[in-house]
Design brief:
There is one protein chain. The chain has 183 residues and is of the alpha/beta class. The protein has one domain: Rossmann fold. Helix content is 29%, strand content 23%. The chain starts with 14 loop residues before the first strand and ends with a helix.
């Protein structure tokens, strides 16, 4: 799915902030990089990495900007990370399907975010599905966690760009509907 396929009716708001959260090395930065057109890149995130994507309305010449705040999952940033949630319109929680510990830490990520954003919509992503032989977490487990979190679940591979566009389009739509509901 290309970014041109994410056309929707936009309210008058012009920017939507989406936080991307999860443990270190689950593929957050790679997913954002693939979706925003930078390609697959290996780089650690220190604090937060911010990426912008301009989108065009399906019904007018209006454009909007999706702003992705890719938060560092390293424990060294636990104290400052909550500052980056402020003002978000949606949250994308990411875990690595090859490391069960990353799905087991989801409740702590949700708790951290809910302190700042109690009602913000969420998307849950199980990443690295291309590593099927190393998989420790099934989609059934991802779906159960998503249900508990009141989120939509997507299985993705940043490396193969599989499911990435669909997952991000869902997060953007949820952000749009959420922010529009606040007016």
């Amino acid at each position: 799915m290309s970014t041109d396929d994410i056309l929707f009716e936009m309210p008058h708001f012009s920017q939507y902030k989406i936080v991307v959260a999860g443990d270190a090395l689950v593929g957050k930065t790679q997913l954002v990089s693939i979706f925003t057109g930078r390609g697959f890149e290996h780089k650690p995130t220190a604090g937060a990495d911010i990426s912008f994507l301009k989108l065009k309305s399906s019904s007018s010449d209006q454009t909007t900007t999706a702003i992705f705040w890719d938060l560092s999952g390293q424990p060294a940033f636990d104290k400052v990370r909550p500052l980056f949630y402020e003002g978000a319109h949606a949250i994308m929680y990411i875990f690595d399907v090859t490391r069960k510990s990353t799905v087991l830490s989801l409740p702590s990520w949700v708790k951290e975010a809910k302190k700042i954003l109690p009602d913000s919509p969420a998307v849950l992503i199980g990443n690295k599905i291309d590593l099927e032989k190393e998989r420790e977490v099934s989609d059934d487990i991802g779906l159960k966690f998503a249900d508990k979190m009141n989120a939509t679940y997507f299985a993705t591979s940043a490396l193969k760009n599989q499911g990435v566009g669909t997952a991000f389009a869902s997060a953007i739509r949820r952000a749009v509907y959420y922010r529009d509901s606040l007016k």
